[in-house]
Amino acid sequence: MAKQVEKPEWTRIAEAFEASGQTQREFASARGVRLSTLQSWVYRHRRSAPSRAEAVRLLPVQVASTPEAPESQLEVVAASGARVRFAVGTDVGYVARLIAALGR
């Protein structure tokens, strides 16, 4: 039978995941927690948190010029390998939400 985990413990784990910058799969593997269990804890934590705007996390970037990308476009490559191209001047908040959604 699995060990019963108290709310303060799973809340701390969910908060640690949110601050980690890792995918749920990476975090669960590193902590020895089942992915489905972590997903449940993160879901419950997000539901119990007071409604707030999701903070934008900034990540280091490398700016490179490529022949196939015109200078009026930028390309973001997510850790998953997904590539997103958007026009220079696109709303940064929109791009951050899009990249965050791709990372889930």
TrEMBL record:
Domain of life, per lineage: Bacteria
Gene3D superfamilies referenced in this protein's UniProt entry, alphabetically: lambda repressor-like DNA-binding domains
Protein's UniProt name: IS66 family insertion sequence element accessory protein TnpB
Provenance organism: Corallococcus praedator
